[in-house]
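so the lab meeting is tmrw and i was supposed to have these ready like two days ago... anyway. pasting both below. for each one the top line is the aa sequence and the line under it is the structure tokens. i havent really looked at them closely yet so no promises
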Amino acid sequence: MRTRFALAAAAPAVACAVLAMTLATAARAQLHDPATPLAVASKVALRGEANSIAVREMRIVRKNDILVVQADMANMGRTDRTVFYRFKWLDNVGNQVGDGESWKQMSVLGLGQQTVKSVAPTSAAVDLRLEMNVEPR
């Protein structure tokens, strides 16, 4: 009887350990470059490794009831990088607004900086995510 009780008592601990490992893996996938401020990192959806690209600053303003964003990307390394990016515009409950932007390609030279800009498709957009994929050149 004790053996059954010990196994039954161990089951929640095993489940908790599996859940903790799953969450740790998911958190590791969402790590951002330390040079990116936390407020900016919350707006960036990085697909893969940052490869020395950091989003240093993001400016969001509302002009004529439409959101406008500018984001500064800096290459912290000496080698050139190719960045694929797009902006996803969200409404007040987190749903995507509009059809979505197509992926854009940009080169960021070693130790260089580039600014990307975008305008929301409608006034319903109240938030955004900058999706990025960085590849070595």
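ok protien two:
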Amino acid sequence: MAGRYFDEWMVGDRIAHDIRRTVTETDNLLFTTLSHNPQPLHLDAEYAAGTEFGRIVVNGTFTFALTVGLSVGDTTLGTLVANLGYDKVTMPKPVFIGDTLRVETEVMELRRSNSRPDAGIVTFRHVTLNQRDEIVCQCLRTAMLKGKPS
């Protein structure tokens, strides 16, 4: 399903996105090194083994990016003008290599754009869950979407 236009959303709309993703060691390693994050909890198995987690914890900014990415196909693909911001990003549980993540989205707010009469602003609440149905990431994403063509 392609993304929806602003006019096609209603507050309270919910989507359980079909795409799931199992996080790999390569995902974590590449993302962490590409973003120049030297945190040994994400890169050093010996170090991580000595922490309360007992193993490598997946980089939280990867989890956040995946949260948004898994939602795009059903929300803003082809209809996005711009993402305007992200708020209230929380990560209540860690993600580990081998966890399979899925995302659910709810529309929290809608408003017409003051600067663009052919667009509107949607605030999505994204919630990412692992295979144990534990919330591992949640956030609000505010996006400007095109209005439905006439």
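from a quick look at the 2nd one: The two ends are 20 Å apart (CA to CA). The mean pLDDT is 96. will dig more after coffe
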